[in-house]
Amino acid sequence: xxQWKSKLSLAESSRLGDGRVxxxxxxxxxxxxxxxxxDILVHRATHVPVGHDQQQHIEFARECVTNFNHAYGPHLVQxxxxxxxxxxxxxxxxxxxxxSKSHPLERSRILLTDNAETIHAKISSALTDSVPGxxxxxxTRPGIxxxxxxxxxxxxxxxxxxxxxxxxxxxSPRELKAAVAEAVIKGMDGIGQRYQNLLEDTKYLxxxxxxxxxxxxxxxxxTMHLVREAMGx
Length: 233
Description:
This protein is mainly α. It folds into 3 domains: 2-85, 3-Layer(aba) Sandwich (Rossmann fold); 106-193, Tyrosyl-Transfer RNA Synthetase (Orthogonal Bundle), CATH 1.10.240.10; 201-232. The chain is 54% helix and 3% strand. It contains 10 helices and 2 strands, in the order αααβαβαααααα. It has helices at 3-7, 19-22, 27-41, 55-72, 116-124, 142-154, 161-167, 173-187, 191-200, 202-231, and strands at 47-50, 80-83. Strands 1-2 form a two-stranded parallel ribbon. Helix 5 runs antiparallel to helix 8 (173-187) and helix 6 (142-154) crosses helix 7. Keywords: Aminoacyl-tRNA synthetase, ATP-binding, Ligase, Nucleotide-binding, Protein biosynthesis.
């Protein structure tokens, strides 16, 4: 696994023995994949939806299954990876980085709880470029391409980002932003209000949490019984 290098902003050629690397390392960088694998395997999940940046974590979980089953018998399930066909949504302020809730700028991301006015303002301030017209090119026009990707997700006609770029080829970035904002606002209509309604219904949330917790305990107990029996513990 190499993701710890990007987390520490290190070159791919970096090695654990390097002094500069060792001073930055934290246990969480290595324990997190183990905990994630345990969460998946203890419930014998068959399919796990993840983003591209999490794919190697699932590969690690699959390797754990291979090693355990080879030593103790076919008790754990090999989880299959489900990768969304939708491209990663990138930051509105830094379109070469993925959209993240941890980014210091709130206008870099669209939240499910954002109202229509906020969504429109964030998309209107999205970073683009000064090249005339609209075209889809992730490498040379990341800002415009990101808006087109977002547009394609919410486009009611199911058009791809490239097709939308053709439709808006003579438009200005401002006109594209207006169309994207309208599509996103329409697509997310009601989600924020539903979220607030659920947040206020604490009795229902407590019930769901308790019911889910009980199901999780039963599932984990069944797996751990198989594991302990296989290992003779």
